[in-house]
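Contributing new records

If you add data, match the layout below exactly. Sequence lines come first and carry their own label; structure lines follow with theirs. Keep one chain per record. Anything else will be rejected by the validation script.
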Amino acid sequence: MSCSIAVFCEAMNSAQQLLRSQRDLLLNWTLDHPAPLLRWLRDAEVLSPAHYLSLLERSPSNAVAQALEMVCATEENSQKFLQVLREVQDYYCRDLQVWVERHCRNDVICKPAPEPVKVEEKKPKGLAKLFKGKSKGFTLATDVQAKEELKPSRSVKLANLRVPISAHKTTLLKRTEQLKCYSEGEGVASNSASHIEIRYTDLFVTEDDDLVESSQHEYFDLASRRARIYVHQACQRIRPCHLLEPQGPSGRPPKRIKVKGIAGIGKSVAVQRLVYEWAIGKNMREFTCIFDLRFRELNLIEAPLSLLELLGERFRYLKAALPDLFTSPSSLLFILDGLDEFKFPLVWNSPNKNIDIQSKVPVSELMVALIKGSLLPEASVILTTRPSTEAPKRFFQRCCVVLGFEEDQVKEYTTKFYKDRKVAEKVYNYILSNDNLFVLSFIPLYCYIICTAMAEFFSSGNEDVEDSLELNPPRTVSEVYFCYLFTAVKHHALRGSAERNTPRSEVLSLAKQQLTNLGKLAYENLLQKKIMFSRADLENYGVTPADLQSTFLCHILQPLKEETVEMYSFFHLTVQEHLAALYCAISLFSQEDIIQALDFWCFGLHPPSSRAAPLQNTDLNMDKLESLQMFTRFFMGMLRARLAGQLDGLVLSSMEQLDGIPARLGLWFQDQFKGRELKNQAALNLLHCLMEFHMKEATSMAAPEIKKLNLFKMKLSVVDCAAMHYVLQFSPHKLQELNLGYSNIGNRGLNRLGPILHRCESLYLRYNCLDKQAAILESAVLKSNECQVKKLFMCGNNLGPEGILELWNALEHNTTVEELYLDITGITERGTENIVHCLSKNTSLKTLTIVGNDIGEVGRRRLRELEQRRPGLRIIANFVEDLGLLQAYLDWVEEIRADRDQMDSVKNADALESVLKGLQVAGEQVEKGENAEKAKELQQNIVELLKSSTNLSGGRQVI
């Protein structure tokens, strides 16, 4: 910092005296906007982190007064305060800047405190008043400007930029320092906000190496992505503030960065935090100016315009400074947020036009040119978008994906959400113990919804609430969403007009018409994949935008505007899906209507004529059926809620034969499993629908028809495993085959499936990130008297010697397992210690494959001894011993070559190295044996694949 501490050494209390004498004056100058001052005081260690956060919760005047009280307590803090004041002076009025120049100059001589500067009136409040006449407030005297030294990190060193850039930073701070939050306590606005420093929680961001675009529902796609990375990979975590840091061999910072992530994952909040950090002077100081543009606002621009015109209109206080700023484009950063919300078509493959900052072109061309770098190639650009929106990776030097929270961040977010730490701990423990909620919680917006819903059950003061929702907190996804919706409705419906224990049906009846209209809007547009609505769209469905701030709608709909944009969207895609499901659950009146609706939503079978509103005008793109899967699950949950009487007050008409619905649905699910060749995702969705419906009668009818379940290469979450367990537990029969190969379920997922594994005749658990704990669990399955497992595939899991010893012990008395595949499972010499003793007593095992394990000479000797004791047992410990095995591995290598995603997903690079080592151990057999040709081909193919994968990853380790 430029102001020397030594300035005040001559008089011990001179800084304290100065600040105490002029405390009211400083308070008056800074109280309207204390954020910069408080943050810099925290970083200067004048304020502790805890004290800093507590001050942000206070009123501005109170916060500054408290900070000044602490500052004046010691001479050292007083001196630090004056240094900080010099750094943050640009955020405040001209009078403060003159005061700083007078008292904090490098050559200042300590003198008794001068008379306070007289100020005629207090600084105007409000954003509009803040910049009215701002140029006057920030104009320094010529001699002061000449002495002011711009920071060396800035590449544009023009003194006349200081005033407009200061105004820009102040404006950005006002726009970015608040995050919307749920309010606790009475009399607090439901759409209140909390300071970003208090509520922001870091996100899990990593490099985006996914080359395969998916058409499935973005939530499931994200779950798959996390299943590939989250369980096992030590992949690179990227803090949002480090997106622009140098990377790769060149060591140059990337100019074009793409950040993708599903709705609600935190992209916009991360960008908001990034802008806030720059505006407050704490990050990315290499940039003279940041322009943050939102595509939803750019939708309003119909006529061609130039970049200068666009920025001049969007940032009017920068208009005169733009020509100076563009003299050094490398010091500029453009943040383009929400490409998925842009309504204009983007043409990426058109030839580059000769466009400069003064060229008038349609706004879509302007954005494409800026993103591609044909316009302002030296400037930096960060683009955020959902995965479903195309923005070719070839235009970006860095592509990242936001994967939400990790477990620690869920805990941190929960702690920040509730003021009561005991409540926060209870809610977090409940989330942790519930698979459905745990998996949902890694999406920040879901985490918000869960925490809002849980407040009803865990917050203090709810002991006397008897009929608010249910006796128990929500367990399934649909219960969580209904809880969130009901909480929002209740807080508004009961405001000043009813008691807390007002019956649920009465509360819902108050909002019946609004929820019905909103649900119809959600459903009919969901079929069209429409997620953004104009004011006219809302009014056509009887939804009044004017009610947004005064009713529960503020929790459901959000305006996509700053001032004049007339576009709206649901708070989140899943909120739209849930409301659509609620609408259908209260609008279908007969069993036949429900069956026709499920045939339509799940399999695209258009319903015959029906009078039910949801079955009218069913115009649906059949290619988009998978996008209705979450909605279908919500529907089953809401149907259960209706049957349980939880939707009383909303139901428009009585449902025919209520008691017969579970049995009728049981028959429908039974028919699907019996009569259809179900694809992986469709089968899994039906299991989830049964779990959300959660009625034993229906599930008991459907489960016995599931003879085989093949979810090979489906990246499964622990909730998927919970759905499988829930349904299959109702089947009395054995499962012929359960194939979960390459599904990355991990120990937690396998543990969830534990109670049904003994009934699986052929159990495929290859490459699932399992370890010793999984081997212990599987050993317990094999020891069970009810075990029916005949084939067990555990290849590619890191079971290790300890886990393998458990398996051998279990097989000593097992009488069912005939084939056991333990390729590449980390078996060492120690892992063979008890193999002879245990397996010589086993009578059922016929085939044992343990290739790709480093068992050493002692291990091989033990295998030879076992073969002598068990002549009927075929042991394959060497790749060249079996032609079929060699061919299988050749096919596997080709599969990985064709689908690079596999290389990233299950540590296949390590597995391939193990295969190479096994081929080398084979030695002479590779040279002379009858399978030598296949072995050499396999060896060569693996070497080439490993080499190409290393090149593709830019020299970094692939996994």
